[in-house]
Specification:
The chain is α+β, with helices and mostly antiparallel strands. Helix 2 (22-35) crosses helix 6 (120-146). The protein is globular. The N and C termini lie far apart (44 Å). The protein has helices at 6-11, 22-35, 67-71, 85-88, 104-108, 120-146, 171-177, 223-226, 237-240, 253-267, and strands at 58-63, 94-101, 151-152, 162-163, 166-167, 181-183, 189-191, 197-204, 246-247, 250-251. It has one domain. The model is unreliable at 1-5 and 293-303 (pLDDT under 50).
Amino acid sequence: MNARGGYAAAAFETRAEEAPSAAVFADFLRYFVARDPRNHLPETLPDGERLRIWEAPLVGVAAADDPLFAALKAPDVVGAMHRSPAEWLPEAKSVIVWFLPYTAALRRGYPKKKDAMPSLEWVSGRRNGETFNNATRRAVLRFAQTLGGKGVAPSNEKDYRAVSMRPMWSERHAAYIAGLGTFGIHGALITEKGCAGRIGSVITDLELSPTPRPYRGIYDYCPYPAEGSRQSKCGACVPRCPVRAIAPEGRDNPRCVEHGRDTVGDYYRAWGYHSCGHCLTWLPCADRIPFRRQIARSEPAEH
């Protein structure tokens, strides 16, 4: 292990002379996800194989002073408790965001039936995959140091918390600002690799070129609010939710969390796992953008 950046950062030390860029961080993240042995479920299959959790990530960058970060403080977006990048790191210049897509094995192993419990592989991937995501945040911070920068991973900070289910730092919204995707009525972010995945982010004082946003509004990749007539709309996630927590108007977060934490958690109590994934699997947006509209590249509409 390399004291400054870990084994993955050590493998990239030859790039330390390059100017920091989104491409350099994207290459580092792809390397880390592909090579780190923690990107596997701890449970083994009968043949002794351990399934990978995450596929290659999508990576985007937002400018720390992007006006949309200030818009997140509005009460109908996230709320006043949401901190701007500069409130986490006064010298903040850039926000690096990545989307980790679940592997096809984990997605396809999820039950199709609405009344079925999530698979063991899914709930294990949710918990152990987020443990890996935390390691990824730390690795990106170490790599930024090898490039002469510093940073902070808000989700890993001791004082990070959510108030009434509204976070001090929303990685989904950061991903939207960084050009990675738009929201669906199920509340997840829909990206080029779908919505079945997790998001991570790091704020840094390195100045990186922002990723273009190839959309105008927050629901552009979701057929239900984005398309024309009701008859052409998707809404497949609405009837798939086992506790009716999703409606065309949005998601009932307390009902969703209660089901994943209590009902699924009780079922997998012996394993220490929880979390539902019905609204992320067996949907048109699970592993792709479900339709393609011709959207001119321009600034998104305000929230």
